[in-house]
Design brief:
Helix content is about 0%, strand content about 75%. It is mainly beta. Strands 1-2-3-4-5-6-7-8 form an eight-stranded antiparallel β-barrel. It is globular and about 45 Å long.
Length: about 120
């Protein structure tokens, strides 16, 4: 497994789905560092009283990692309550194209104030 690090900028655009209780957002990310490119996708989220919330997202990355090019899918699952939070981000098996045809990995996101950083552990 290789581990790469960097930063990313993210924009979430709320979508109006009428009176549905679940929120939907368009995701647009720009990755810098050892992973360069763009991630676009959609996120579903829901929050209830007491600060309990969850989200699921599908993000398609297009770009380069260590001079290799292609696309692949990240699957996000986030859960949060008043005492803890968890975030699981994995690559979708079989979703890679070009140099990423066999990619497999997990990503950690660290947010410090307004800066988002990533650590992506992967194999090709």
């Amino acid at each position: 497994m290789k581990t790469i690090k960097g930063t990313f900028d993210v924009s979430l655009s709320p979508q109006d789905d009428g009176s549905h209780a679940v929120g939907r957002f368009l995701i647009d990310k720009t990755y810098q560092g050892e992973m360069k490119g763009r991630g676009i996708g959609q996120m579903l989220s829901h929050r209830v009283e007491g600060g309990i919330s969850l989200y699921y997202a599908i993000e398609r990355f297009t770009g380069t990692i260590n001079n290799k090019k292609g696309t692949f899918i990240f699957c996000h699952e986030g859960l949060m309550d008043a005492k803890s939070q968890s975030l699981k981000i994995t690559t979708m098996a079989g979703s890679g194209t070009d140099d990423f045809a066999t990619i497999n990995g997990t990503m950690k996101i660290i947010q410090n104030e307004s800066v988002h950083t990533y650590e992506f552990e992967y194999t090709l």
